[in-house]
Amino acid sequence: MPLVNSLKNFQPGDKPTAAELNAPYDELATNSAIIDGDNAASGWATHRHFQGATTFVPLANACKEYENPTTTETFYNSIIYTTITQGGNPAEITLNYTPDVNELVRFHASGMVGEHVIAKDYDYVGANQGKPNYYAFRLLLTTSAGAVNLGEWGYSFTTKRNGALTSVLTPNTASAINWQPFAFSTVYHQATAGVTLQKVELQCRVFDAANQLSIERHQLYAIRAKR
Asked: Are 137 and 202 in contact (CB under 8 A)?
């Protein structure tokens, strides 16, 4: 553990040299570059350092979370984004606070898909080319100024790739990609004063309603950095 130990007690009548006076500062400059975990006593940080007792106002960083540890599969075949909901519990976090201008908030989601029901793993020609074989997630932030799409992340139902995606003669010949984890994160930048962040939702969609996306456990986090 780096320590500054060159402090000297001067007595009346002593004539300290410049080197003696500067020694603690020289040693501090050296040791500050090698500070390690030993400099922090065990238990120095508590839950109160990271979040206010009753409100989403951090003393350091604050984390809000939604977690659903279910192993029960819930199926989705909506071609528009819909909030993931299992057992009547929507995957969303209520925020209800107004960030400072230029404040950053990190959002992270992850989970596990189950055993999909795949009716179409082939493709079409034209505008739909590449889409029936895919499903996607997004994070939707609702604010007092409107909804914000924080990002979209796509995955494949099967191992079919490239030219095989345009074949309608040999459908359903690829291996399904089941029991696959998903994870993604993004950062929201508050650029305008007076905008309240209301909630964030984890949503999903497919590109062909004949396919059903299976989702098991999933979780969503919002991390607000200290201002």
From this structure: yes
> Are residues 73 and 177 located together in one domain of the fold?
yes
Tokens 């200290």 correspond to 226
Same domain, 26 and 131: no
Ramachandran region of residue 13, left (φ > 0), alpha (ψ -120 to 50) or beta? left
Domain range enclosing 133: 48-224
Count CB atoms within 10 A of the CB of residue 135.
25
Q: Which two tokens stand for residue 101?
A: 């201008």
Instruction: Please check the confidence at residue 123 and state whether its pLDDT lies above 70.
Output: no
What's the one-letter identity of residue 131? K
3-state class (DSSP) for residue 36:
coil
**What phi and psi values does residue 139 have, to the nearest 5 degrees?**
-110, 120
- What the block records as the tokens of 143 is 């604010």
Return d(Cα 163, Cα 155) in angstroms, integer: 18
Strand partners, 117: 212
In three-state secondary structure terms, 220 is strand
149-162 burial by CB neighbour count: b if 16+ within 10 A, else e? Answer: ebbeeeebbbebee
Domain tally for the chain?
A: 2
Q: What pLDDT sits at residue 160? A: 74
Angle at the Cα of 97 (from 95 to 103), degrees rounded to 5? Answer: 100
Tell me the average pLDDT across 79-99.
95
Q: Assess whether pLDDT exceeds 60 at residue 166.
A: no
Question: Tokens 């984390």 sit at which residue?
Answer: 63
